[in-house]
Design brief:
The complex is a heterodimer of chains A (581) and B (384).
Chain A (H helix, E strand, L loop, with lengths): L17 E2 L14 E5 L5 H5 L6 H9 L3 H9 L5 H7 L3 H5 L11 H12 L16 E5 L3 H12 L3 E5 L8 H4 L8 H12 L4 E3 L18 E4 L5 E2 L12 E3 H9 L9 E5 L3 H12 L3 E6 L10 H9 L3 E4 L1 E9 L2 E14 L5 E5 L5 E5 L1 E4 L3 E2 L11 E2 L2 E2 L12 E3 L10 H20 L3 H8 L10 H4 L50 H9 L12 H5 L5 E4 L2 E6 L9 H5 L5 E5 L3
Parallel strand pairs in A: 3-4, 3-6, 4-5, 6-20, 8-16, 9-10, 9-16, 10-11
Antiparallel strand pairs in A: 2-23, 7-17, 12-13, 13-14, 13-15, 18-19, 21-22
Helix pairs in contact in A: 2-3, 2-6, 2-16, 3-6, 4-6, 6-16, 7-13, 10-11, 13-14
Chain B lengths: L1 E5 H11 L4 E4 L6 H12 L6 E4 L3 H13 L4 E5 L1 H6 L1 H9 L5 E6 L13 H4 L7 E4 L3 H18 L3 E6 L7 E5 L3 H7 L16 E2 L8 H30 L6 E5 L5 E5 L3 H14 L4 E6 L1 E3 L3 H8 L4 E6 L9 H10 L7 E7 L8 H13 L8 E3 L4
Parallel strand pairs in B: 2-3, 2-4, 4-5, 5-7, 6-7, 11-12, 11-14, 14-15, 15-16
Antiparallel strand pairs in B: 1-8, 6-13, 10-12
The chains are: A alpha/beta (581), B alpha/beta (384).
Chain lengths: 581, 384
């Protein structure tokens, strides 16, 4: 303790004890037994996104009012924010920590807003320069194929996409009705992929116009032909006149082909296709009843879709199973059995069991069978293994054949747009690793978001940027003292009969002010947003700034390791570890 | 301007007129309406004072300590348990020589739970180095706050202004409210001796080893010893400007009385009526009001009681095991003197029980009738 002044009398002393000395000599850091450090972590939404979107970062950019960068952050991982913002079943929101506080952040609505905002900007995507020689072939222009094409193009590959239909988009165009996904939104995002130099050849059917041998010139092929074959219900009469398959019906509508329908339509099945078909039929002014053999709880369709369908006048009869379709003049006579739920089956759902002698009859004009889809395997090259109705793949979509990769619905039973986009991205990474002679498993392992299985391509392209640990931030790790309850923002939604006029979008994009309010609701789990609580609270002035901004450095000469910064960080972006001695 | 206001409103006027820059307080009955009044004025924008919300009285005082160190004139108010909770910070305020002014509305400490008036809260803080001034009426409350800042900033010690729960805090009386201009002439802005300057950083209240600590305490005692002189000067000046003054004590009644009755707070008002009545009945009685408890006005009292044989004192407090605290202080003050009267120590009105004119008369009568008290503690109005 240097320079203490010694007084010999009280009269010489000041009235209060003051010191003009400093404490720099007292390196209190030596008292420390635990050490705080800045560590961005993984948010549960990021981990839950099958497409691997960097949700927490795009919302952070939104909060800063930089919508264009927010859009680019999504685009780093996913070429389809406008599509996903509309049709994704948003598992991110189910995992959103805000759900433990009031309501989850409306992530899908923010993604949609950002995409629609970016659509108004003049020039957005830069065509990558310095092309590599290799050209990759992609079969199928659905979400998996186009996601793979997009990322390969950004990795400087040439890409040829082959599509059997007259226009690109796969299930996004053929399967999803435009009241959920307007065609112009799809068109615009496909164009952005093409702008990177991706070449799409439509009307080329694999196995027919194009054979495996024709693809020999390509060092790698990605097959993502989806699951387009309607699964039958195997009952007498299902191939009769006026009985359609669900996906075929949707394709016809989306290609604006005429479909002859009577007035009363029965739809068999309980998945998303069944709901899409039912809502489309309602828009044609027909009466619709969905027959589903299990109860509401087992229904695989997304709950929101079911609710909207019911609001639009779709009737659903649960625990009913048609066993025969008879033709009676132009009418169909459906013989049905009533069901009850028995023991759980291999899918974890309770198995429907027929109630004996419960047969009854229904008369309808048409029946549409939407009992699920299967993959088409006839054109697949020999040497590709199949199991449980899908193509068997290893990490990154590798098949049994060297240089041939597969993904999307063809290789997965998790048949969502977001999963398909994620699998396309993984395939792009796998193809790049394969062509560079790197081990695919190792590459993918390093890119997992949290504990996976989704991957992020950003660190692959920009090593050392936006670093974060795989630790997924739990609600208990956040400090709720810094948040106030606020209501989840909702876009406008047409209701009831208003929906049924045409195929216009049912829900609207958030207006800018509502989008900003919603983005403010994000806790930003695990990502420092420079709120400076740590700086304000540190009793040892050991949180260092560079100029006016946080340096994310702790002054360990003086930090006593009290842990206040760790506790007061609202979003778990500071960690505390035992001091190594 | 003359207005009919409660004691707590008088406090608020005193604070506003003193141009306080920071208020930090935590609500507690019967102090609450002071903070309500002030915070509403601040919230409505009519009073340009910072109000700092805190989660406890301990923090309220801690906040004031920081602000006062930074040269800010500041204020808080509390009662009872709130004051007890501040205890550690009360020592800090005086040890750091900060001219903080606080109002304490006298209220008993529980248990048993009680929100009514007695002095056990403020008197339990008598050794914390605070000047303590007790008030008799709402006018005195307002005036004492103005004087308190002058005294505090002059001797660099904190001052506690004390008033009785409900009897003053929630009771309306006519009060003369001086204008801002008049008060500005009486109370200049506060200039700290060591202003905070980021260009010349300093650490405050740093450690003092045994080599120096002793002397710092000696200096506090010396500052306390200046209070009688400073307070008198301030009071004289106040009287010349506003026509009202209070002194450290006030004597009323017969000049050379056989029995003197000493009281503090609102009991004095009641006593004035009783003394007047007894004088009219021919008794040789007089009263003394004690306004300043700390530092205790030894000399002023000794001057006032010369020739008196018997001195009755009513304490609205109890130091269990000893008796009334004013009584102890009085005995200690008179002990060194060659002649001293017989002291009759009464305890009355604990937990807000009314000290009625008949009880006061009973105390005086007892003193007249006895040469010396039969008991060390004389319980007045106790249901034995």
């Amino acid at each position: 303790m240097p320079n203490q002044i010694h007084f010999s009398r009280a009269s010489e002393m000041p009235d209060i004890s003051v010191s003009r000395g400093d404490m720099e000599w007292n390196k209190t850091g030596s008292w420390r037994v635990q050490r705080p450090f800045y560590e961005n972590k993984t948010s549960p939404c990021n981990e839950a996104c099958p497409a691997g979107n960097d949700i927490v970062n795009f919302i952070l950019k939104m909060r800063q009012g930089d919508f264009e960068t927010a859009w680019r952050v999504i685009k780093d991982e996913n070429p389809f924010p406008g599509v996903c913002g509309r049709v994704c079943f948003h598992p991110c929101e189910s995992k959103c920590n805000r759900g433990h506080f009031d309501e989850p952040v409306a992530i899908h609505a923010l993604e949609r807003f950002v995409s629609d905002f970016a659509a108004t900007l003049p020039k957005k995507m830069e065509k990558p320069t310095a092309k590599k020689r290799e050209k990759i072939a992609i079969i199928g222009s659905g979400p998996a194929g186009m996601s793979c094409a997009y990322h390969l193009a950004k990795l400087h590959y040439g890409v040829n996409v082959f599509e059997s239909f007259p226009s690109a988009g796969g299930i996004l165009r053929m399967g999803i009705p435009s009241y959920r996904l307007p065609k112009d939104v799809l068109e615009r995002e496909l164009k952005e992929i093409e702008a990177l130099g991706v070449e799409i050849r439509t009307g080329v059917s694999f196995g027919e116009h194009l054979r495996s041998e024709d693809l020999k010139e390509y060092p790698a092929i990605f097959i993502a032909t989806g699951a387009h074959r309607s699964r039958g219900v195997e009952i007498p009469g299902e191939r009769g006149r006026g009985v359609y398959s669900g996906l075929d019906f949707l394709k016809k509508i989306n290609l604006r082909k005429k479909v002859r329908l009577g007035e009363r339509i029965a739809i068999i099945g309980g998945g998303n296709t069944a709901i899409d078909v039912a809502r489309s039929v309602r828009r044609m002014g027909k009466k619709v009843v969905i027959l589903y053999r299990r109860s509401k709880e087992e229904m695989p369709a997304f709950e929101e879709e079911v609710t909207e369908a019911i609001e639009e006048g779709v009737k659903i009869r649960y625990l009913v199973n048609p066993i025969r379709i008879q033709q009676k003049e132009s009418l169909k006579r459906l013989e049905c059995l009533r069901m009850e739920l028995g023991e759980k089956d291999e899918s974890g759902r309770r198995r429907p069991v027929p109630i004996p002698n419960s047969n009854f009859f229904m008369e309808v004009d048409n029946a549409i069978i939407a009992a699920g889809e299967e993959i088409e395997t006839s054109f697949l090259p020999r040497g590709i293994d199949k199991k449980d109705g899908i193509v068997l793949t290893h990490t990154g979509g590798r098949t049994g054949i060297e240089g041939v990769f597969a993904g999307g619905d063809l290789a997965s039973n998790q048949r969502t747009v977001a999963h398909a986009i994620g699998s396309g991205k993984k395939a792009a990474l796998a193809i790049d690793s394969y062509l560079k002679g790197n081990e695919v498993d190792k590459v993918i392992q390093l890119l997992l978001i949290g504990n996976g299985p989704s991957v992020s391509i950003f660190p692959y392209l920009h090593p050392g940027e936006r670093m974060r640990s795989s630790h997924v931030v739990a609600f208990e790790e956040l400090n709720m003292d810094y948040f106030e309850h606020s209501a989840r923002q909702k876009g406008e939604r047409l209701r009831g009969k208003a929906c049924l006029k045409g195929y216009g979008e049912v829900t609207s994009t958030l207006i800018q002010s509502a989008a900003l309010v919603e983005s403010e609701r994000c806790f930003g789990c695990g990502t420092c947003n420079e709120c400076e609580n740590c700086y304000l609270f540190c009793p040892d002035a050991s949180i260092l700034k560079r100029d006016e901004t946080l340096s994310h450095q702790v002054d360990y000469d003086f930090c006593k390791g009290c842990g206040i910064c760790f506790v007061e960080c609202p979003r778990g972006a500071i960690s505390l570890e035992e001091e190594a001695r | 301007m003359r207005r009919v206001i409660t004691g707590n409103q008088a406090v608020a006027y005193g604070v506003i007129l003193s141009r306080v820059d920071l208020i930090s307080a935590y609500p507690i009955t019967p102090q609450t309406t002071i903070v309500e009044e002030l915070s509403e004025l601040i919230a409505s924008g009519r009073l340009k004072t910072k109000f700092l919300k805190v989660e406890s009285e301990h923090s309220a005082m801690a906040a004031l300590i920081g602000a006062s160190t930074g040269g800010v004139r500041c204020f808080t108010a509390t009662s009872s348990h709130g004051l007890a909770y501040m205890h550690e910070m009360l020592h800090w305020a005086s040890g750091a020589r900060l001219p903080i002014v606080m109002v304490n509305v006298n209220r008993a400490l529980g248990p048993p739970w009680n929100i009514w008036s007695d002095q056990s809260d403020s008197l339990s803080q008598r050794d914390t180095g605070w000047v303590q001034l007790y008030c008799e009426n709402n006018q005195e409350v307002l005036d004492t706050i103005l004087q308190a800042y002058r005294i505090a900033e002059s001797v660099k010690l904190p001052v506690m202004v004390v008033l009785d729960a409900f009897v003053l805090s929630h009771t309306s009386e006519a009060v003369e409210i001086p204008t801002m201009d008049e008060v500005d002439k009486f109370l200049p802005p506060y200039c700290p001796e060591y202003p905070i300057d980021t260009q010349e950083p300093m650490a405050f209240s740093v450690i003092a080893t045994p080599e120096h600590f002793f002397e710092f305490r000696y200096k506090i005692q010396k500052a306390m010893e200046q209070v009688p002189r400073v307070a008198k000067k301030v009071d004289d000046e106040f009287r010349s400007m506003f026509g009202r003054g209070y002194g450290a004590i006030e004597k009323y009644g017969k000049e050379e009385a056989e029995v003197l009755l000493m009281t503090s707070g609102t009991v004095t008002s009641t006593s004035r009526i009783v003394i007047q009545k007894l004088m009219q009945e021919g008794y040789s009685v007089a009263g003394i009001k004690i306004k300043r408890f700390r530092p205790f006005p030894d000399e002023e009292i000794y001057e006032a009681i010369k020739g008196t044989k018997k001195l009755a004192i009513i304490d609205r407090n109890l130091s269990a095991g000893v008796g009334g605290i004013f009584c102890q202080e009085l005995r200690a003050a008179l002990y060194p003197k060659e002649t001293r009267p017989q002291i009759f120590g009464f305890i009355s009105g604990l937990g807000g029980r009314d000290i009625t004119p008949s009880l006061i008369e009973e105390a005086i009568q007892y003193t007249l009738d006895h040469d010396r008290p039969k008991e060390e503690i004389l319980w007045l109005g106790l249901k034995r």
